[in-house]
Amino acid sequence: MKRGSGKCVKLDLAKKHACYVLITCDEPSDDGKMQVEMSYEGDATLAAYILQGAQLHMEENNIDEASLSFEA
Q1: Interatomic CA distance for residues 24 and 22, integer angstroms
Q2: CA–CA separation, 27 vs 21, rounded Å?
Q3: pLDDT tens-digit series, residues 12-25
Q4: Which residues, in sequence order, are CB contacts of 5 under 8 Å at separation 6+?
């Protein structure tokens, strides 16, 4: 996501949803590091519930660190 365009996304999400969690990351650098950012709007407890549900969904579908590859 380009810097600055996130504001439009956040405004659109806030219009349509009581709560949202937005996680973005940049492409990995040559040394494999990534800039990751997270923001949310709405109730903090509900945002935590959304994140927990997403984690459970990924675990149930066997998506874990071992199955991810960030090599170009």
Answers
A1: 7
A2: 20
A3: 887 788 899 999 89
A4: none
